[in-house]
Structure prediction request, 325 residues.
Amino acid sequence: MRVVTGIRPTGPLHIGNYLATIKQYVELQKQNECIFFIADLHGITTPYEIKSYRKEVLQKAVDVLAAGIDPERCILYIQSEIKEITELAWLLSIVTPAGDLRRMTQFKEKAKKYPKNVNAGLLNYPILMSADILIYKADLVPVGKDQKQHLELARTIARRFNKRFGETLKIPKPLISESSAKIMSLKNPRKKMSKSDPEDTYISIFDEPEMIKKKVMSAVTDTGRSIKYDPRKKPGISNLLNIYSIFSGESIRDLEKKFKKKGYADFKKSLIKLLTDKFEPFRRKRKELAAREIYVKEILKQGAKKARVLAEATMEEVRKKMGIV
Ligand code: TRP
Prediction:
């Protein structure tokens, strides 16, 4: 199957993110034809740092490569490199119901969050996203729950296009990842781990050992002293148990047994060691790639070259169907 998905360029790759996105993509790339890109044109719909943006986008490419995206197995590129996508976005806007755009939850949320910056790009965000997907005739699109509505719109747009201009675009299927919801903030375990919260509330897969130690040690625990999974009464320990279980592969039940006679401090120490060891390859790979900028840029260039061939083929068809030279 052909799998296509975009990765937001800004913010750190915290463990909640990682589990919901890259970890899944690394699995998908083993069996499928995967196309991944850094969505730099989506990233500018909300306020951003102009001077450092290019660097952030490249850093994100380094991060996903360090986290296991394999350029030998899939296509990786920067969205803005494929001009055909922005062209398709315009053409798709012709079959996009304007009312649907205004009803999108993400649009409403972002418009509320940035009342001084309710630009048309924020409104048209899902059209560009549809172009990202439809241009490759994708079969499957892995996204987080928050993007499900956008994917439904992409399907609607494809159907409307086909109805009006003739069978051309493939209707993609969503693959919704649920796991990010389960990793909670280290400081407020009733709230999801989020990259827009202060740094001490999340762990990044690239955190140095001292940082992991500091964050885990200062993570909120609960009253009492038993290591027991009870998200309602003991949300702090339950969250840490869940993280432990995911990265060790041990069941929560087994962990409860293992730490039955131990206190919070021992449990945390063990978790620190686990995460430090588990993330070591990520840190190492990231440092390696950081020192090889030319190599990374070449990967992205080759990725864009391959993607462009596929994109151009769809565009020729789309232009013809729409009666545009
Ligand atoms: N909007 C997606 C997000 O916020 C990123 C994205 C851009 C995307 N284009 C895409 C995801 C196409 C899937 C397919 O995470």
Remarks:
- Residues 4-6, 8, 39, 42, 129, 132-133, 141, 143, 147 surround tryptophan (CB under 6 Å).
- The first strand starts at residue 2 and ends at 7.
- The chain has a mean pLDDT of 96.
